[in-house]
Amino acid sequence: MTADYETLAKTIAALTEGETDQVALMATVACEVHHSDDRFDWTGFYRVTEPGVLKIGPYQGGHGCLVIPFERGVCGAAARTGETQLVPDVDAFPGHIACASSTRSELVLPVRDSSGKVIAVFDIDSDQPDAFTQQDAQNLEGILTAVFAGL
Q1: Looking at residue 94, what is its pLDDT?
Q2: Cα separations in angstroms, 87 against 98, 148, 151
Q3: pLDDT tens across 46-99, in order?
Q4: What is the 3-state secondary structure (H, E, C) of 104-140?
Q5: Between the CA atoms of 5, 10, 117 and 136, what dihedral angle is there, to the nearest 10 degrees?
Q6: Do the bridges between strand 42-50 and strand 118-126 make them parallel or antiparallel, or are there none, so unpaired?
Q7: Which of 27, 39, 112, 122 is deepest in the core (most CB within 10 A)?
């Protein structure tokens, strides 16, 4: 099954309406997105907990890395640059951190609060190579903005 982003966005909006707790929002988004698409093998958040440091947040799937510095990996690149990272082959990404050996491709999106500050990154891993498209990125960016930009 492939994500129906229109339905997914409506479902997440209904589930998160009025909620202001970041962790509750992250847990809900991670769960709904993870179960929306067979390509999504690991789905979760890494939170900015101090300058230059990401720590694991709510997720679905196997174990993730506990701490990721901004200088390392795809998640670190998204946090450091504030730009979505669409990686068709993680083995070709300089400094990739292999939290799971099964990961072949990755999509990581920065999560911003109402001031535009990056508060987390949303990481989706796939055990399939080249699993993600620009359309996936755009749809997920829209969902994340709708959920977190009001905080």
Answers
A1: 87
A2: 13, 24, 28
A3: 999 999 999 999 999 999 999 999 999 999 999 999 999 999 999 999 888 888
A4: CEEEEEEEECCCCCEEEEEEEEECCCCCCCHHHHHHH
A5: 0
A6: antiparallel
A7: 122
Tell me the per-residue pLDDT of 2-17, one tens digit each, with 9 for 90 and over. 999 999 999 999 999 9
The residues near 59 (Cβ < 8 Å, ≥ 6 apart) are 30, 42, 43, 44, 45, 123
Q: What angle do CA 42, 71, 75 make, to 5 degrees?
A: 20
What sections of the chain are H helices per DSSP? 5-16, 22-34, 73-81, 134-148
The pLDDT of residue 90 is 95
Place of tokens 């829209």: 142
Tell me if 112 sits within 8 A of 148, measured CB to CB. yes
